[in-house]
Write a structure and sequence with these properties.
Helix content: over 70%
Number of helices: 6
Number of strands: 0
Radius of gyration: 31 Å
């Protein structure tokens, strides 16, 4: 007689275990990505995190209503307003092209991620329906008086339980190999876009310094015309200070531009490597599952033909 599996673990426990596994896998990907970066892997905080034997300190400012949380919210609002109200006249074609490419890539990845999430959902639903079918087949097999038909139905139920586990495995591959990869790169592209905005902010500071320097020079010229020689020394000191600020702003802008070029180039190369390895891993998983599925049904076929 076939044993009928009437229930599984508590849904709450399953949901909790699934949540923990998702967070664990996400942390692992983050650590591996950080460790592979030539600069970030040398960061003292990162190394301390990896080498810390004690429990990690609990977060104290992650609450949505905490002071730090409200401060972050206002900062994000201010940054968003600044992005909308200030438009930098981009003179570098490389940056203009890259920003457009990132926008297009972000849009397409989000659409693909939505499709893969739907695939994960449907695959999980297929697993649940397969489990339900397996239970029904087992119950019919237990009630069937015809010996060979009862045995075949019992074997069919066992095969369907194996198929259910395959569907669960495929759903995991859909999620952990594809969906999470897409989600990671959507977040990474958001970070890259934020870095581009930081370059705009550096340019704003440089531009503001140039404007201030111009005003200081105009003030000095007015003092000369008005014969206010007692304040000329201070005016010249102010001009020298802002000339240094302008040079500093120019240097910072050129430096961040060069760094962004280098990091984006590394990002694009790594993106190709990550997608290639993930697609190959995903296809290998699908092939293995399909081969296993064929073996299950080939093993069941003689039992079905033996019904007399």
């Amino acid at each position: 007689m076939t044993k009928v599996k009437m229930s599984k673990e508590d849904d709450g426990t399953l949901a909790h275990d699934e949540f923990v596994e998702k967070r664990r896998a996400s942390l692992e990907r983050y650590l591996n990505r950080t460790a592979s970066h030539a600069v970030l892997r040398l960061d003292s905080d990162f190394r301390e995190f990896l080498q810390l034997d004690a429990d990690l300190p609990k977060a104290t400012n992650t609450s949505a209503l905490s002071g730090a949380g409200m401060k972050r919210l206002f900062n994000r609002v201010g940054i968003s307003v600044n992005k909308m109200t200030y438009k930098m006249d981009e003179s570098d074609e490389w940056f203009e092209e890259k920003q457009q490419q990132l926008e297009n890539l972000d849009d397409q990845l989000r659409k693909l991620h939505t499709s893969v999430e739907a695939l994960v959902h449907h695959r999980k639903q297929l697993s649940l329906h397969t489990a339900s079918f397996a239970k029904s087949a087992a119950m019919v097999g237990n009630a069937e008086e015809h010996t060979s038909l009862s045995r075949a139905l019992s074997q069919l139920a066992e095969v369907e339980e194996k198929v259910e586990r395959l569907h669960e495995k495929q759903a995991d591959a859909d999620f952990f190999v594809l969906a999470e990869l897409l989600k990671d790169y959507i977040n990474l592209i958001a970070a890259v876009k934020e870095v581009f905005h930081q370059r705009v902010k550096v340019f704003q500071n440089w531009e503001a310094a140039q404007q201030t320097l111009t005003k200081k020079r105009e003030t000095e010229a007015k003092m000369h015309l008005a014969g206010k020689t007692e304040k000329l020394d201070q005016a010249k000191a102010d001009i020298a200070e802002w000339e240094a600020n302008v040079q500093k702003g120019q240097h910072e802008f050129e430096e961040i531009s060069q760094t962004i070029r280098k990091e984006v180039d590394c990002f694009e190369k790594q993106r190709v490597i990550d997608f290639k390895s993930s697609i190959i891993k995903y296809l290998d998983s699908l092939i293995d599952d399909q081969q296993q599925l064929i073996q299950y049904w080939e093993a069941f076929l003689p039992e079905a033909r033996a019904i007399a």
